[in-house]
Amino acid sequence: MPYPSFFNVFCHRDHATRVFSLVTKRFFYFPFPWDEVVDVADADHDVAAKLLQSGLFLEHRGYLDQVDEYFQRMEKQDNRNLAVYFCVTSKCSMGCPYCYLNHVARRDSSIGLVDKFLELLKSRLYKAPHIPVLHLVLTGGEPLGRIDLCLRLLTGARDACAQHGVRLDSCLLTAGAFGKESALLSLQAAGLGGVQITFDGPRMAHEKTRSTPYRGTLDMLSDLATSFSLG
Ligand code: SF4
Question: For an engineered disulfide with 34, which of 17, 23, 65, 202 has Cβ 3.0 to 4.6 Å away?
Answer without folding.
Answer: 17
